Amino acid sequence: MKVVEFDSEFDNRVLDYLGRNYSKIFSKRWIAGNRIVAIFVHEEYVLRTSSNQSITVIFESSGMSGMSRVTVIASGGGQGLFGITWGSESAAENTFEKRIREITTGRYDSQY
User: Fold this and answer.
1) Which domains, ranges and CATH numbers included, belong to the chain?
2) DSSP helix/strand/coil, 25
3) ∠ Cα 15 20 25 (to 5°)
4) Nearest of 81, 84, 23 to residue 49 by alpha carbon
5) How is residue 84 annotated by DSSP?
6) How far is CA 99 from CA 3, 27, 33, 40, 107, in A?
């Protein structure tokens, strides 16, 4: 599980990105006043484990504090009797975190 916090001025950009790239299975948004909560569920095939894995993203914007947060959880990327993931879930979470940081900071470097 990875959590990324960012300034709420990027809410629309992040929500647009999540809607385009992480809503293959399910997406739902709730708006109450100036608070937004959204859930995105995505499934992808992972070559390294020859299996599908699920990526769930929870978006939370508090509105008043000026900060927003996304939580990403990758699961089900294992194979075989013991469910060995070969790091596929962690890699998916790291890739997601890097992309959100790029969107919200404008930096496209390897710092993340």
Assistant:
1) 2-105 (3.30.530)
2) coil
3) 100
4) 84
5) B
6) 13, 19, 28, 16, 10
The pair of three-digit structure tokens given for residue 21, joined into one six-digit string: 């790239």
Per-residue pLDDT tens for 22-51? Answer: 999 999 999 988 899 999 999 988 877 777
Of 92, 96, 86, nearest in space to 48 by CA:
86
Whose structure tokens read 């399910």? 26
pLDDT of residue 81: 55
Label residue 98 exposed, middle or buried (CB < 10 Å: 0-12, 13-18, 19+): middle
Q: Which two tokens stand for residue 90?
A: 């962690």
Give the C-alpha separation, 72 to 5, whole Å: 12
Judged on CB neighbours under 10 Å (0-12, 13-18, 19+), 38 is: buried
Tracing tokens 């959880």 back to the chain, one arrives at: 73
Given this model, what pLDDT does residue 19 score? 97
The one-character DSSP state at 48 is: T
The confidence band for 112, taking pLDDT boundaries of 50, 70 and 90, is very low
